[in-house]
Design goal:
eight-stranded antiparallel barrel; single chain; alpha+beta; 9 strands; 28% helix
Length: 239
């Protein structure tokens, strides 16, 4: 994992594309961008939260500052395969992320039982402080299939396209499968995310304008909570 980035500070904007917009825009982008070294792959996440879902409820209120914690893998892994434990914070439109790479069994035990792990000391200290503030538990598994493009002239310019969003709140394990219940986002919509260090280049803003693609607010975990998990929460409260 010598080429993996462990800290981020960048601007991120999300867009909800129709299938037609995605197909037309994607073709236009290939004049300026190309698939990154990973190309097309599946991302699996286990999101952690408090018993009353404090983190995601706060996030859905759209405060100036919000944060989340998840463990992420690229595809289904074996217990000893490396995964990423991540804290993701957003303030005033800027995203800050810190993550550590550890085997899945260690990452899960670290969050649930406070087991010591070997990792970058700065990121680990921040996570330890985060864990002290919240008593986190695994709450939901969310997976999706991603295409990732990077700029030919600026590799730090990235566009990702997420398809086939799905979730489950049982078997919260990154080792079993990437199957789940579809997260409905209209009909055949694609979630696009722009990730850039500073401003987007002019050619990209021209493409977005040509196909009438505008930024929108979207959270995979938030949509899952609002559309599915909250119903289970109320059902339990009423039993």
């Amino acid at each position: 994992m010598e080429n993996v980035q462990y800290t981020f500070k960048r601007y991120e904007k999300k867009y909800i594309l129709t299938q037609a917009q995605y197909e037309k825009m994607y073709e236009a982008l290939l004049d300026y961008m190309e698939l990154d070294e990973y190309g097309r792959y599946t991302i699996c996440n286990v999101y952690f939260d408090t018993d009353d879902y404090e983190l995601i409820r706060t996030s859905l209120d759209k405060p100036d500052y919000k944060e989340k914690f998840r463990i992420r893998s690229y595809g289904v892994v074996a217990p000893e395969d490396m995964v990423f434990a991540e804290i993701k914070k957003k303030y005033d439109g800027v995203v800050y992320k810190r993550r550590i790479a550890v085997p899945w069994v260690d990452a899960r035990d670290y969050v649930l039982d406070g087991k010591e792990v070997s990792a970058d000391l700065y990121s680990l200290a921040e996570m330890d402080e985060f864990m002290r503030r919240y008593e986190l538990k695994p709450k939901v598994f969310i997976a999706y299939d991603r295409e990732a493009l990077m700029g030919r002239e600026d590799p730090l310019l990235r566009l990702t396209f997420d398809h086939n969003l799905r979730w489950r709140d049982t078997d919260l394990n990154l080792c079993t499968s990437d199957e789940g219940i579809p997260i409905q986002v209209g009909e055949q919509y694609v979630i696009m995310e722009l990730k850039v260090k500073d401003a987007a280049p002019l050619w990209l803003t021209d493409i977005l304008s040509e196909y009438e693609i505008y930024p929108g607010s979207f959270s995979k975990y938030g949509t899952c909570y609002t559309n599915y998990l909250i119903k289970k929460v109320f059902a339990k409260m009423n039993t």
